[in-house]
C-alpha cells in the first residue's frame, strides 16, 4: 500500500480482555517499530523489528505485551488481560532502511480505551 | 537510558510571529529527526540532521543540530495557521537504531 495501515482504528476493551492490534507496513520496509502515545505525550518506544527478527523489546511495559512479525511484513501487537493504564494510542512506524535515515513513516494509530 | 527533553511544552503565537522549539539530549546523538503531528493525526517526518553544526531549511522552517550533537532546534518564521500542531524531536543514540522522542511542543497560532 501507499502508507502504513493500522487496524482497528479504535478499540474499546473491557478490563481483563485480550486485544490484538495490526500493522501493515509499507511493502519492502525492513524496520518496524511500535510506539505507545499517551495523551499529551511523545511516542514511547515499545519494540523494534528488522524484517522478522525482534531486535529490541525493552520498551514493552510488562509480560502482558507481546509483538510478532513472523514473515517480516505484517506485525501484530497483542496485549493480554488489558488494564486501564494500557489506554493510549498505539503507533506503528516503518522504514526502508535499518538505520532509519530518511525518517520513519507512521500509521494513523489504534486508539485503545480500556473500560 | 537516553532522555530527550523538549521545551517549551506549549507556545501561543499570533499569526505572523516567529516560533522556536528546543530539544536537548542527555547523550550524544548520531542523528536527530523532527516530526509534526496535527491534532488528531499521527507524526509526519519533516527532516533528519546528522552532522555536527548542521543547518537545514525548508521554506519557513529552519532546523539546527548543535556542535556537540546533543541539542537541536526548529525555528518557524512568520507562522501561519497551517503550522498548528505538535512538533517532536526524536534523537537516535550512537550505535542504536531506536529514536527516542521528546515530549513535543504544541504550537497554537492565533489568527
Structure commentary:
The complex is a heterodimer of chains A (115) and B (111). Chain A is globular. In chain A, the strands form 2 sheets. In chain A, strands 2, 4, 5, 6, 9, 10 and 11 form a 7-stranded mixed beta sheet that branches. Chain A has a 4-stranded antiparallel beta sheet with strand order 1-3-8-7, with no helix packed on it. Chain A has 115 residues and is an all-beta fold. In chain A, 0% of the residues lie in helices and 48% in strands. Chain A is built from no helices and 11 strands. With 111 residues, chain B is an all-beta fold. Helices cover 0% and strands 58% of the residues of chain B. In chain B, β7 and β8 (71-76) form a beta hairpin. The radius of gyration of chain B is 13 Å and the shape is globular. At the A-B interface, β4, β5 and β10 of A face β4, β5 and β10 of B.
